[in-house]
Sequence to fold (562 residues):
Amino acid sequence: MALRKIINDPQDFVDEVMEGIVAAHAGEVRPLTTDLRSLGRCDAPHPERVAIVTGGGSGHLPFFLGYVGQGLCSAVAVGNVFSSPSASLIHAAASSVASAAGVLFLYGNYGGDVYNFDLAADLLRAQGTRVRTVLGTDDITSAPAEQAGDRRGVAGLVLVYKAAGAAAEALLPLDEVARVAQKAADRTRTMGVGLAPTILPAAGEPTFELGPDEMEIGVGIHGERGIHRGPLESADAITDRFLETIAEELDLLDGSRVAVLVNGLGATPLEELYVVYRHLRSALASRGVSVAHRFVGEYVTSLEMAGVSVSIMLLDDELDALLGAPAASPFFRPGSAGTAAEGTPLRDSAAAAVEVRTTDRPSGLRTLLLGALPAMPAHAEELRQLDADVGDGDLGITVAAGSEAVLRAVSDLPAEASEPTLLLAAASAFASANPSTFAALVGTGLIAAAEAVDAVADRPAGERFATGLGAFTARVSERGGAQRGDKTFLDVLLPLLDSVGAEVDLAEIEASAQQLLADSTPLQNRRGRAAWQGERTRGLPDPGAVAVTRFLTALRRAGEGS
Fold:
């Protein structure tokens, strides 16, 4: 795996990160040491407030560095990537924020961190400062329950920061702040999964390796090996694994309240975190457990590692109140504690209902649509590839899903449905099936066509067709800004207005569209996302024009078979 990072000299990485943070968040946090490897609250020390000091290796933002602020920690010291800060750095940072209220060291249970924080505590005590220590040991897979004291501290430590920080902000004495922190740590468990490793800037090598379809349950935030490696499972299955394991140690009984933190490890889309939270909330509810505080986002990362962790804290009244207390830092995103409003009616977002109007005879347009639309999904891959060459690749699914939705809508209408009714139903169904620029333009064009056709309902079919097509193209041009020659699907449709007679000859219309498509292919796209490709679009057919031509072919075949 190649090293691809937006950095300068890898040896300067941490120092330049710290320079950037200090410059970006001046007034919110301040450097405490000349090497900028430590940060402190701007209002620390406070004579009556316990100073909570944390720290660890760099590479985990917003972990450690991100939790210095109101209702959180007073100071932080960081080492190189995934490496402990030195005892002298920890001592200097703590001394800068310490007061007569004392210092609480609160950090994750890693060997180097423990040794260096313990040495810093010795130095502080030697100068007369009271110090207590609480370790985060929430990583449930890093050691068995009988060796819980050996477990690593990971994302659950953020919830412990929140509880202990609120206690310190309330000016509770050192022993009480330490008691709260220990209780919060004892009632918190975390489990994670890794999907892809991180690459250390200085080493240029991945911290572990996984196959393209593998996952590692229990992977550590430094790439430590987990407890299970196997085929990638669904989000719900992974979440169930987490909850079942955590519930073996936390008494998640009917009536329990919890705080939940769903954390991205650095390269996991936020959308996937919400997929996990959605199932986790449902699974907890099935046990009778309510989520009082919820945190979803990146709280503890491992550079660009892909994966997710879930932390659960079993609450009592004290912890519930502390987690709900105010907190702020340049990085901290407060969790949510509200409940959904009950009794508020929800509006159906499906395709808008259409007033059904009928005539005294079966609709020829309905027959054509029922015959043509089933053929359109077969063009999904062709349209996807064409669109991917010049745009975002969504046209295939837009046309396929839209055609299927229109087919259902038209099928539900009576055989005698009027042409305006059919066009309005098609507009709503197509635009709603897979909302996109193309879908919206087709939808608004069909609405305009329905209004125009309604005004000439008693005229011959050719005139109705030309009137509807004229209204369709005019509305699309108005909304989308395209003109003839801009290489859009209008280049296929606009010239047809000059060739429609009193009757509709679908074979002639299709043949004209095919020629117009060929004529427009050498042009350069000048509208939509394809226009961003400039000269590269010459020689490539416009995807929307291809879609329209394929539909006219389907209509012609349907007409021949009717």
